[in-house]
Amino acid sequence: MTTNRISLTELESGTPFEHRHIGPDHEAQAKMLAHIGFGSLDELTATAVPDVIKSAEALGLPQARTEAEVLQELHGLADRNQVLASMIGLGYYGTFTPPVILRNVMENPAWYTAYTPYQPEISQGRLEALLNFQTMVADLTGLPTSGSSLLDEGTAAAEAMALSRRVGKVKQGVFLVDADCLPQTIAVIETRAEPTGVEVVVADLSDGIPAEVAERGIFGVLLQYPGASGAVRDPRALIEQAHELGAVVTVAADLLALTLLTSPGELGADIAVGTTQRFGVPMGFGGPHAGFMAVRDQFARSLPGRLVGVSVDADGNKAYRLALQTREQHIRREKATSNICTAQVLLAVMAGMYAVYHGPEGLRTIARRTHRYAAVLAEGLRAGGVEIVHDAYFDTLTARVPGRAAEVVAAAREAGVNLRQVDADLVGIACDETTGRAQLAGVWGAFGVHGDVEQLDAAAAEALPEALRRSDDYLAHPVFHQYRSETAMLRYLRTLADKDYALDRGMIPLGSCTMKLNATTEMEPVTWPAFGQLHPFAPAAQAQGYLTLIQELEERLATVTGYDKVSIQPNAGSQGELAGLLAVRAYHRANGDEQRTVCLIPSSAHGTNAASAVMAGMKVVVVKTGEDGEVDADDLHAKIEKHRDELAVLMVTYPSTHGVFEEHITEICAAVHDAGGQVYVDGANLNALVGLAEPGKFGGDVSHLNLHKTFCIPHGGGGPGVGPVGVRAHLAPYLPNHPLQPGAGPETGVGPISAAPWGSAGILPISWAYVRLMGGEGLKRATQVAVLSANYIAKRLEPHYPVLYTGPGGLVAHECIIDVRPLTKATGVSIDDVAKRLIDYGFHAPTMSFPVAGTLMIEPTESEDLGELDRFCDAMIAIRAEIEKVGTGEWDKDDNPLRNAPHTAAALGGDWSHPYTREEAVFPSGVEAAEKYWPPVRRIDGAFGDRNLVCSCPPLDAYDN
Ligand SMILES: *Cc1c(COP(=O)(O)O)cnc(C)c1O
Cross-referenced Pfam families, in alphabetical order (predicted)? Predict the structure, then answer.
């Protein structure tokens, strides 16, 4: 038999990754192009993208590589990271992620590809998991209301400062921070305090509040418990003194320590903040991990971030939802008090599950063992003549070795252990869940002492103060007791995941959120120990793999966006916005333009824009959006004129929030520049631009982009995220930096935006891998197919639903908005009815009522194949026909499949009194019975949940009727 000869080179390239990432193949693309009347992708985007913004040349990125090659490169980078036993402490600890959680949550697409639970009926699993998290935090901190999740401990403390100022009695005065708080927390607080005119005073509060500070007025106090030095102090007297002065007291607490120590709530604190990292979430060189905040009852309604609550569904059954959803902070725009949007849901789920799996006894045992190691370590050091500075500690010791600290730390490093050099004389040593005997010997050796663990264990006393021993019960809810065996835990995780709809079931066409493929190759390195187990303050020499990856990613993102410099430190889009605006502010001030504080924001902008602007000390001036969805040019010019001398910046989303390529963008940028302002292009959603246009070239001075949208970091059910900020050269000196890692930003920077020097470094391999796998051409093709798919959907739906906005050539960009308002008006079928009915058809609804009420914004992304796009269009068209039946009176106005959607399996039982059939309810056109997704609850009554706010696990009998 003979075959044609084929070269090795051709065979070696295998299937390009691009064909795995992009859903529609050539044939499908040709069909879709024909449907919308174009001959090629290039022809399509040549028409859709305005000439004035088009890139002049192809992206200068390295050639695409295969999945096997990229994994090999990643292994090479991982090999250049050195994982030592970490005893640095400072809020980051070694932890053992139970493998059942590692594989079935962190590595499980049913959890990591889910969207934020705005559609609660298809999110009951993750909402329950988050309620576990809230219950855990509330119980351990002794404060009744906890949200589900802030971005990290440092920003949580900064949010507490803002909350204290808002809710406290004292409206003036300073924010007083104890000197034994984590240094990165203090730095994050200072970054945020300055632009809002808050003065931060850092002082040693171990002897109470200094009189000269008290005289100035204090609106809030922050304490660390245990302190950064490891010291455990009884803060009761201090809290009382602060309360007498009218201050709100925040205690930054360590959850593991709280299993043994009296809770902040019982000590009198008003707010508790911290991180849940050591509850089974790898350090990841700084993140992502879930920060937390818990508060007294009276502050519950002012809590920043998301809050899960309990409500009821249409049948009166218990159901979870995001509570006070309409009050979600950033949605209040310039009246918002926090800009938090994407948080750390996946990591919160992991930490909550860690507590579920271990239960209170298991956690207590881990805490006692950790404490015991510290006590034995201290005993050995003392026996060898080393002074231990504090008598009361939990897991962290400060050892005094005059003049020898550097030498001791170096010797420990030789022995495979990282310690913390506090200064020339002091060494910090933190124990954790992973500490072992061999490690103790290494530490003793570094100090030049020898210890015998058995003997020292017999001799060492406990070092927790008697007066602070925890005596109350916690984690009493059955969920923290039922899943001790791995089989039980596995099934619990599976049961919850099965309730939810994530990308592993079908498309999630969420406009503005870009729910695209999160490829397995991209995800794999995240859980490799060489990326997972690095401490963010580990010496740079041990993180060469990471530092190379970070530098390459920053450079490649700069190439993609056309900016000169990128910082990946911000750990969400909102944080990128704040970082970018702080850079603008610093730039104006450096030019002597302190008065430039006005931030122009179009009314259609994402809510975080205005919230971030306020946090950056700016005054928001709203610019009108025209009928066509574009920024109203007349209003813009009028506002520029009016605020000419105070104009700091215009924040504009591109492509516009309405999903179109605005043609006037370059004129808009020029007008702002002409008035001395800067242009902030919100590039959170860069999926219509990559490879086609560069904001840094078409007029932007600064942008953030969301790696959890365009660059494949999974949404995680509402986080993690990474929101890099890119700037032109004149703003580069004002990017974020970090006090503990000088290499993490410019010396002249604005301070840290995140607690960790490189933010959520642990998930950067995902975006690095994506760029490497696609290459410049592949990235461009992804953009083109994203534009193609959006236009295909717009074209297919147009005869049935009006498409609200289009740009050049009657085309949309990467998403389209369809208008349901006329149908609502004519038939009474609401946008909610359509969204919930989509669940019956096996879909996640598109973005609802943003940016225009009563509409759906659909973003298919390049990853959905033609079959799935058609299935979605067919469902929307079938729903349109159903609406017609309501309109004509064939179906009852109040009792029809739309109004009653979604339908559960339980709803089919018993009497069926509806004027439509069971089949019409649950197997509408196109739904295969064998492949049906069954929502676990009926439509949820949001108002009930807000009136009866319950934000921790309810007792099991609470909802029996
Ligand atoms: C998603 C988004 C944001 C906010 O990003 P987060 O990561 O959720 O903070 C800001 N602007 C736009 C246009 C977005 O789409």
Answer: GcvP2_C, GDC-P
For residues 929-954, one letter each, b for 16 or more C-beta atoms within 10 angstroms of the residue's C-beta and e for the rest, the string is eeeebbbbbbbbbbebbbeebbbbbb
By the 8 A CB rule, do 122 and 835 touch? no
What atom of ligand 1 comes closest to residue 721's alpha carbon? 7
pLDDT of residue 850: 85
**89 in Cβ contact with 273 (< 8 Å):** no
In a domain, 273, yes or no: yes
The pLDDT tens digits of the residues spanning 487-535 come to: 999 999 999 999 999 999 999 999 999 999 999 999 999 999 999 999 9
Residue 161 in domain: yes
Domain that holds residue 732: 569-687+695-772
Single out the residue in 356, 378, 412 at which a domain terminates: 356
Structural domain includes residue 917:
no
Q: How far is the CA of 683 from the centre of ligand 1 (A)?
A: 9
Average pLDDT, the chain: 95
User: Could you tell which of 116, 328, 512 is best to mutate to test the pocket of ligand 1, judged by most ligand atoms within 8 Å of the CB?
Assistant: 512
Say how far apart CA 668 and CA 411 lie, in whole Å.
59
Residue 792: partners with Cβ closer than 8 Å, 6 or more residues away: 32, 35, 36, 860, 869
Ligand 1: centre distance to CA 712 (Å): 15
Q: From ligand 1's centre to the CA of 575, what distance in Å?
A: 10
Of 728, 750, 772, which residue sits at a domain end? 772
SS (H, E, C) 573-595: HHHHHHHHHHHHHHHHHHCCCCC
Provide the pLDDT for residue 626. Answer: 84
**Index of the ligand 1 atom closest to the CA of residue 577:** 10
- Measure the CA–CA gap between 371 and 365, rounded to whole angstroms: 10
- Hey, whose CA ends up nearest to atom 7 of ligand 1? 573
Q: Which two tokens stand for residue 133?
A: 């998290």
* CA angle at 46 for the pair 41 and 50, rounded to the nearest 5°: 140
CATH of the domain at 307: 3.40.640.10
Structure tokens at 428: 């910090």
| Count of domains forming the chain | 2
Q: Per DSSP, which regions of 265-374 are E strands?
A: 271-275, 291-295, 308-313, 318-322
Q: Which atom of ligand 1 is nearest to the CA of 339?
A: 9
Q: Please list every protein residue whose CB sits less than 6 Å from any atom of ligand 1.
A: 341-342, 512, 572-574, 606, 608, 653, 682, 684-685, 706, 721, 723
State how far the Cα of 220 lies from the Cα of 545, in Å rounded to an integer. Answer: 41
Nearest ligand 1 atom to alpha carbon 342:
8
Expressed in angstroms and rounded, the spacing between residue 734 Cα and the centre of ligand 1 is: 22
Query: Best of 118, 574, 578 to mutate for ligand 1, by most ligand atoms within 8 A of CB?
Result: 574
Instruction: Report the nearest-CA residue for atom 8 of ligand 1.
Output: 342
Q: Tell me, in angstroms, the distance from the centre of ligand 1 to residue 601's CA.
A: 15
Taking Cα atoms as reference points, which of 239, 238, 230, 281 lies closest to residue 257?
A: 230
Q: How does DSSP assign 96-151, residue by residue?
A: ---HHHIIIIIT-HHHHTPPPTTSGGG-HHHHHHHHHHHHHHHHHHT-SEE-S-BS
Query: How far apart are the C-alpha atoms of 177 and 267, rounded to whole Å?
Result: 18
Best of 514, 660, 687, 706 to mutate for ligand 1, by most ligand atoms within 8 A of CB? 706
Rounded to two decimals, the pTM is: 0.97
Using CB atoms within 10 A of its CB, is residue 961 exposed (0-12), middle (13-18) or buried (19+)?
exposed
Q: Is residue 626 part of a domain?
A: yes
**Residue-wise pLDDT tens digits, 919-943:** 999 999 999 999 999 999 999 987 7
Query: Which of 342, 656, 711 is the best mutation target for the ligand 1 pocket, counting ligand atoms within 8 Å of the beta carbon and taking the most?
Result: 342
For the chain, count helices (H), then strands (E).
Answer: 32, 26
Q: What is the pLDDT of residues 124-154, one digit of tens each?
A: 999 999 999 999 999 999 999 999 999 999 9
pLDDT for 405: 98
By the 8 A CB rule, do 714 and 112 touch?
yes
